[in-house]
Write a structure and sequence with these properties.
The structure is a homopentamer of 362-residue chains. With 362 residues, chain A is an alpha+beta fold. In chain A, 55% of the residues lie in helices and 14% in strands. The first copy, chain A, has eight helices and eight strands. Chains in contact: A-B, A-E, B-C, C-D, D-E.
Chain lengths: 362, 362, 362, 362, 362
Amino acid sequence: MIKLQLPIKLQNKKKSRIHKKLGKAPGTITYMGERDNSISTLDVIAYSDDSLEEYSPVNVNTLLEDKRDQIKWINLVGLSDEGYIEQLGKVFQLNSLVLEDAVQTEQRPKIDEYETYIFGVFKMLYLDEGQNVVSEHVAITLFKNEVLVFQELTKDVFDGVRQRLRGHQGRIRGKGADYLFFALLDAIIDNYFMILENISERMEVLEEEVYQKPKPKTAHKIQELKKEVLRIRRYISPVRELVGRLIDTEHPLITKDTKLYLRDVMDHCVEINETLQIYREMAMSLMEMYMSNVSNKMNEVMKVLTVMASIFIPLTFIVGIYGMNFDNMPELHMQNGYFIVLGVMFTILVLMLVYFKRKHWI
Amino acid sequence: MIKLQLPIKLQNKKKSRIHKKLGKAPGTITYMGERDNSISTLDVIAYSDDSLEEYSPVNVNTLLEDKRDQIKWINLVGLSDEGYIEQLGKVFQLNSLVLEDAVQTEQRPKIDEYETYIFGVFKMLYLDEGQNVVSEHVAITLFKNEVLVFQELTKDVFDGVRQRLRGHQGRIRGKGADYLFFALLDAIIDNYFMILENISERMEVLEEEVYQKPKPKTAHKIQELKKEVLRIRRYISPVRELVGRLIDTEHPLITKDTKLYLRDVMDHCVEINETLQIYREMAMSLMEMYMSNVSNKMNEVMKVLTVMASIFIPLTFIVGIYGMNFDNMPELHMQNGYFIVLGVMFTILVLMLVYFKRKHWI
Amino acid sequence: MIKLQLPIKLQNKKKSRIHKKLGKAPGTITYMGERDNSISTLDVIAYSDDSLEEYSPVNVNTLLEDKRDQIKWINLVGLSDEGYIEQLGKVFQLNSLVLEDAVQTEQRPKIDEYETYIFGVFKMLYLDEGQNVVSEHVAITLFKNEVLVFQELTKDVFDGVRQRLRGHQGRIRGKGADYLFFALLDAIIDNYFMILENISERMEVLEEEVYQKPKPKTAHKIQELKKEVLRIRRYISPVRELVGRLIDTEHPLITKDTKLYLRDVMDHCVEINETLQIYREMAMSLMEMYMSNVSNKMNEVMKVLTVMASIFIPLTFIVGIYGMNFDNMPELHMQNGYFIVLGVMFTILVLMLVYFKRKHWI
Amino acid sequence: MIKLQLPIKLQNKKKSRIHKKLGKAPGTITYMGERDNSISTLDVIAYSDDSLEEYSPVNVNTLLEDKRDQIKWINLVGLSDEGYIEQLGKVFQLNSLVLEDAVQTEQRPKIDEYETYIFGVFKMLYLDEGQNVVSEHVAITLFKNEVLVFQELTKDVFDGVRQRLRGHQGRIRGKGADYLFFALLDAIIDNYFMILENISERMEVLEEEVYQKPKPKTAHKIQELKKEVLRIRRYISPVRELVGRLIDTEHPLITKDTKLYLRDVMDHCVEINETLQIYREMAMSLMEMYMSNVSNKMNEVMKVLTVMASIFIPLTFIVGIYGMNFDNMPELHMQNGYFIVLGVMFTILVLMLVYFKRKHWI
Amino acid sequence: MIKLQLPIKLQNKKKSRIHKKLGKAPGTITYMGERDNSISTLDVIAYSDDSLEEYSPVNVNTLLEDKRDQIKWINLVGLSDEGYIEQLGKVFQLNSLVLEDAVQTEQRPKIDEYETYIFGVFKMLYLDEGQNVVSEHVAITLFKNEVLVFQELTKDVFDGVRQRLRGHQGRIRGKGADYLFFALLDAIIDNYFMILENISERMEVLEEEVYQKPKPKTAHKIQELKKEVLRIRRYISPVRELVGRLIDTEHPLITKDTKLYLRDVMDHCVEINETLQIYREMAMSLMEMYMSNVSNKMNEVMKVLTVMASIFIPLTFIVGIYGMNFDNMPELHMQNGYFIVLGVMFTILVLMLVYFKRKHWI
């Protein structure tokens, strides 16, 4: 599980990628994630309309032997054991480029059609405990009667599909491998709505903050949100086109019936893309609002200063006059001079206040 | 009737959607709106050039039985009774994906062509009592001789079409089901102009406000308007492409004659999209104007401060000088010292005023 | 003649349109302009290479009878008499949608091809006496040997074409109806350059204003100009594509020879669109310049304030010191104390001035 | 030679164009430049691989008579003699639309293919003595064995081509008329790099100015540069597409071999367009930098004011206290009162300075 | 090796290019880089699945003679010896346009297909010792059994490919010349990730700087970074399309197998382009953040000024009052007058502080 890094840090990742890969031949299988000790585990769900078995095969070579008219969902979790994956690739006669992409966690979403199989790389997006968006690399390969899934981690979004298979819910048990492929893809895309929801909530909080009491940190948060939208869009935007190509393909593995369902997935992709686009525009609007608020704040500050200074500077000048020590200042010796000056100053004060009131500065 | 939420709140909606749907099989019929107790009601208008009947069938199974060369407009209001809708789906042999979309009020506009029918989802936009824009989900299915409409609420924009049917106005009674389909679509799109008008009025008010007396709240209002334009565009922009596809389709249900009318609907869509685009640019201009006004205001405030301070600070300095208590200050003992100083200060004042006048600061 | 309203007001117009039209069947002929009492007048210019007649037919039914191998330009001015127009439509066997668009002054530019005729709606743009841009709706229908023009008002841009017809100038008399159609379209488009020129002059004035003495009103004017460019673009931009489609059409009414001329019209459309695009960018630059000027002004104001305050506030502090009434202040009793303090203050003043001079603030 | 006017002035030009042309038939030959007395001069270079002649024919009618298997470059300088040009047009059987475009100096770049010739209009761009960018209209017509060039002025960029012809350099003498056409076009495009270089130098100077000492005028200059980039792009951007069309054409006059060379010209066009695009973005960045500098300046000014005022206003208040004339002010009568107050004020001053130092304001 | 100049300086380069080239015939071989004395060196790696030889041929004419079923990688370093290159061109029967592009270091990336070979120009990007991005021109020509590489400098990114050839790693030894072509292209593109990483690191530093302590120079640095992203994009963005064309080509030199690998290269190009696009948006966000920080700083400064002035100006006015010298000022003679005034002023001070505290200004 890779925390959704800033592109900056994404690039730091890429450094290690470059260091690992630079000079190696294309097609070399190199796991790019954070190596951990967890061993790869392989689970199989084999099902037909009237039967379902789940088992963990010990020997990968036997995987394709027991042909019993069942659809098999072969799920590999953990991509760090490169030897094991190479062995798997041999059993399924996968191109070495495919294996490379299957374990290369930095690979952007893609769907490649080969003669006997279709290979896709996607990104699952989660929220971790700290409500941060994290991404997980997942590769799905569709064969005639098998679907082979490569996952980085056990945490996945496929539980719903498993439940439907086990509970014989919906159409899934009566359909072919391509329908399973669709169901897995659909589960991934459906989960993106969770992320959108999270972003939407954070945007709502930020909107509140901008309108109520913007702080210098608010601008920072808005930019962070915008950056996150950019990043998520990067994961999702290619999927739309890829699914579109799958709908138009003439590859025999995708039945016309499944294309109907894929059209639904594409609708969701379009909707997610549009929503992200709107979020981006909203983040830009928020930044505008923030800047306009900062300016308004400044205006308010300036008005207070100007009102205070404009009222008291002239008055201070007047009292300064009568603080002068000239021998001959007739006003000083008038009986009511002091009170007259006080009166004059009070009048000036009132006039000033009226003036500023009219200008709506106070 | 769903109040047109901020995308933010839209997403809050989606949460419940996700919670309701996550893990369910695609094609599951789940009503997504706010459940209310109102029962679904079904109304039928059956008409031909020389006859028209209106009735509410008790049994949905009899709907297709009485074939009398009439075009039937079957209108269902209320989407919360999922069992009833499923029954209806069976009668009309609708794909379960279609039924899912028919009741899923969050579905974005779409038109899907099936072998024997064409299914479209659209958004009606209204103004509620508080002049807020609210949207209502509506799904229209075109068969050879029937048009089946799924509506959330009784409030609709189809009354004009009903009047024309009953009053035998225009061409509608003499034409086929596809013309009825067009007429309903046309009624929906025509109503969008009401919304544009409402936005235009609010923009006019805002423009007045920006030019006359912008307040910090004005910026907020401009951003709200911009957001609303974004949202409405989201409902309308797909329709243009959808209608375009309908014009180019070779589906036998759409006659060449009706395509001529659909071209008109598409013209309206183009016009609405263009107008929304212009509104968006105008909202951006308004925001620019607002910011420029805030800056101008600040300038005005600063000028007042500068003029006041620049005039009185030097004068205060001068009176300060003659307030000093040095033993030996010859000016203090001059007979006219005080009056000379007053004269000098008055001259400085006049010169300052002339200077600021020249700079157009006062 | 409709004054080119702000889109806002355009929408107010549309309200009445909606009120007039809502619920009416498509194809209903409803004049949308400001109804006036003027009766519709019909003028015909019938010409061939060696003859030209001008007359005003009393009976529209005879219009098509006198076939004498002449090209006929039938020009209708005034669109408020819906009955008359319907009658005309019957004579020329026009589709009711065509008649609807012919009188609907809000219709955006369009060209529709029918089997026996081609129908186009365009906008003439004028300057009225007050140099405001006003638009006039004009619809041109091309038949095999006739061109039928629907105009709102007598003021038009077709006089040049009439002169050429009467004076047998250029090729026009020897060519077919499609050349006349082109000539009318060309006259409309050529007139747009007048509008561009007007905008360009106003932009020049505004540029002068921004660079010389920007006022708060200047920003308003720039935004108004930008809005006007947006609006004009809306009238012109569809024409380019429409003419392009006419050039590519295989409709028998447009000869290959005329397409050569239409290519010229399209070149003009492209040029107008490009110029408008440049005007838009220039308006945005002007706004930027305006904002930068406002900031510079503010800077200048602030500098004056800062210089004045920075010089006199410390000096005032010094004179304040010697205005204190302590019993024991030795400086006060020095013979030259006063003059020494004056000297010190003068030195501070000079140093300050040098400092600010160096900073280029004065 | 037309000085590259602001679009504004360009439009002023267009006024006269409209006044000259309005009402005239399309295809009328009207020279749009500034009429001068210079007579048109016609020069011919006739060459084959082993011969080259240069002469100025007296009679245009004999131009096409002396067929001696030579390629002829017929160069007309001066477009004000419309009769002469019409005569030329007859000799070469040119369409009147072509002649119109040949002399219409406002015509934007275009390439039109006719059955027996290809006609192109381009813009030469020069720097005049004052380093201003000026444009010259040039029209090139390619026939089977002739290239006919219409130029406004004698100053041209074709000297290099002449040298190569005379010196038998490169391939040009052994190739056909289409290669000459390419060579002329290549010379025009190559010269655009001079203009790019000029803009780049001015941008460098402006960049220096913005970073070192921005003045209010700097913003003006940046906007001027941006406008100029916009204008030049307008001349160049259509050329790319036009050359592209020439490469794809199946017109027999363009040989496959020449298309290879045209691909090179197109590469240059793409490069120029990209460079202009980058210049535009750089001008926008410069404007941003300018604005950020203005803000920084303002900040600096404000800091000086704030530091001065914050230090001396409280001190002035303190000295004000002891300038009061109350009968009973014990501090005034303390032996060291004055010195204590001076000490306190000095302490305050030091604390203030430390505070502002910490805030990095001084 | 050319240091990646600002486009400005790039254009200065182009000046010399123009001066060198202007008037020369197209196809003239002119080296555009900084001429150095280094002689061109030619190295050959000839390999098959079971053999590999490396040698430096003395005579270029013998290059193609020793045909032994080997793939030959002929690598030329140093492009200043034009005679040598022309000789090489003759041996390989290269078009003179190809040779021109091979040595013209300003040429933007291109791929041209000729009948018997495919010629491509690319840019290697490096970091020099000072961490500046420098670019090197490289031209690769693919023949049936040879790959001819033109390099400016010895420093290259092809070492990894050489290692794989020598070590018989991966598939490279068993594949054809087109696979070598791909491997070289792949090495160039892979190296771009290093540059991205460098930009990403600098952006991270800048982000830190903007958020922590923005200086006027920071804006400058952001703009520089943005400009660099623009420039790099210019080198990389054409490559994507070029590789795309190579994948779609039907040229016999590119095998179907190699196209699979080229698809991978194209994926990388897409990724690089997207990353650059994100960097550009991030640079714009950084600039926005910088401006918002400058405004916030200004706000903070203004608040300090306003608080200080608003508190002490009124107090100074009060002490000024009692510094007046009127004969009749009763307060002056009150026993506790002084202390009462001090108390009043203290109260005002406290109220002011509370007021500003509430406004969150202090």
